[in-house]
Fold this sequence. Notes:
Helices cover 40% and strands 14% of the residues. With 301 residues, it is of the alpha/beta class. A seven-stranded mixed sheet has the order 3-2-1-4-5-7-6, with helices on both faces. α6 (144-150) links the parallel β2 and β3. α1 packs antiparallel against α2 (18-31), α3 (40-52) packs across α4 (59-75) and α4 runs parallel beside α5 (91-107). The radius of gyration is 21 Å and the shape is globular. The mean pLDDT is 90.
Amino acid sequence: MAGSLDRVARKAAALAPAGLVQLAVRVREVVAPQPWPWDEAAVRLHRMEKRGRGALPYPPYLYGLVTAARTARAIGADEFTALEFGVAGGNGLCALEDYAEDIRRWYGVGIRVVGLDSGAGLLPATDPRDCAHALHSGAFAMNEQALRARLRHADLVIGDVRDTSGPLMGRIDSGDLPPLGFVSHDLDVYTGTLAALEAMAALGPERALPRVPMYFDDLTGYPYTTETGERAAIDAFNAKHETRRIGQVENLEKTLGGSSRFATWPRHIFVMHTFDHPRYNEPEAIELPDLSLRTDPRDPS
């Protein structure tokens, strides 16, 4: 369908008034939105969705891993670590394993997958910003035995992340695990999320990729606000650090194709910058758009 709509748009550009050209372009963007071609992660995500004939499970995981792989290639890293904070039943961790195998096949970049969870669901709140009024202790408990039987190669770390995050980062810092490359935050609460972020801040500059894509699951809807939960943890982290900064990817949904154009998850994608990484500005392989002067300025291509 997308190809036929492209042809319609081009014919309209040659034969029709400018208003009709713009209408054709807008119809195409609603019926079959296309990804920005210079964002490799957006293109790969769209291709996978079309191949599967429907929305993918955990699309931010695939987007984040492809983005991380692009950065890894730029600095010559052949592997990185991907973390999921807040595993619950384990569906996301299994999806992360699957996508890690796709990345290895596409780019030759290896990924060590690690999930961290209390094993007992949400722990008792220790701060009002944990939203205990809506997020009850014990929710999202794990069947650890069933999950371990399902996992193929991911590590599963059980315990309070305030206790387990530091030792895990120690493994990354020592080289026992490859540099940090992607993180999913699904802890819901302020205290655990901030503890995880602070543990990452202790990594040496070269023990994380220069830019680490991060997905924060719990930013939309009640009880989450700018003053509670994961959003408050991001702000607290940024207020404390200069060379490690977490920024939201602006208007990401506008660059994505297919169902992701209308999803909420793109607004949950952030990047942790390690500004003191010695190779922060190594050029990534990005195909930039052609901005040369067109023969016909009405051509929408």
